[in-house]
Amino acid sequence: MYKIFYSMLNRVCLLVYGLFISLGSMAQEITSFTVESLPKKLDWIENPISFNYESGALDIQSGPKTDMFIDPMGGHIVLNAPRAVFKPDGYFQLSAKVHVNFNSDYDAGVLILYANETHWAKLCFEYSPQKEPMVVSVVTREISDDANSSVISGSTVFLRISGLGKACVFHYSLDGKYWHFVRYFHMETKDPIRIGFSSQSPTGEGCDVKFTDIAYTDNKLENLRNGS
To answer: Which of 6-20, 57-71, 124-138, 213-227 has the lowest mean pLDDT?
Structure first.
C-alpha cells in the first residue's frame, strides 16, 4: 500500500515538475508579440523583467540598473535596457502616450531608434536628479550625446519619433495634438534601423512603464517645427 502511495506521489511530482519546465520554456520562447496598430511584430532585444500587452496598452517592467548609454568620457558603457523593436518604413512616425511610475533618478519610458550597439537614439520621459519628470534625448553615433529638453508636470506625456530617410526627428506633446520640437539629427548606418519601446532604471531597482495610444504611419513628416 505504501509502495503504491509513494509511486503515485512520485508520478504527481514528476508531472508538476514537467509542467513548470514547460511553462518556463514557453516563457523563454516569447521573443516577439503583436500590437494591432503597428505594421509588424515587435522583437525583444534584452528581455524585460515582465511585459504585458492588452487592450491597446503595453506595459514594460525593466530590471535594476538598466540603461542605454555610452559615456563621452569613456569607460562607462551600459546597453542592457529591454527594448521591443520592429523595422519601419523609410518614412515613418511612431507615437505613444507614456506613463512612468517614477521612483529613482533617470527612471524613464522610452521610444527608441536602434541600428546596432553603437548607432541608436532614444527619446525619454525621464526622472531627473532634481526629482522632476522631463523630456530627454540621447543620440549615439559611437558615443552618446545627451540633452535635456522640457520639464513636464505629472507622470504622463506623449512622445513621437519620426524617420525622414537619413534623418530623424523627436517631438513631445502634452495633449497628443500639438507637437513640440525636441531634436533633429542624422542617423545612417549599414544596419537597418528598428524602432520601438523601452524602459530603463539606471540607478534604481526597476521601472514600470505603460504605453497607450500607440500610433504609426508611413507618412513623411513635412514640417518639423510648426506643431504638426
So the answer is: 6-20
In a 10 Å sphere around its CB, with 0-12 CB exposed, 13-18 middle and 19+ buried, how is residue 161 labelled?
A: buried
The pLDDT tens digits for 158-217 are 999 999 999 999 999 999 999 999 999 999 999 999 999 999 999 999 999 999 999 999
Domains held by the chain: number:
2
Asked whether residue 89 falls in the same domain as residue 166, the answer is: yes
**What does pTM read for this prediction?**
0.87
Q: 102 and 211 in one domain?
A: yes
Q: pLDDT tens, 16-45?
A: 334 333 334 333 446 899 999 999 999 999
Q: Of 78, 180, 166, 79, whose CA–CA distance to 135 is shortest?
A: 180
Regarding whether 20 and 35 lie in a shared domain, the answer is no
Residue 81's domain comprises 31-217
The reply to whether 36 falls in a domain is: yes
Vertex 188 angle, CA 186 and 191, to 5° = 150
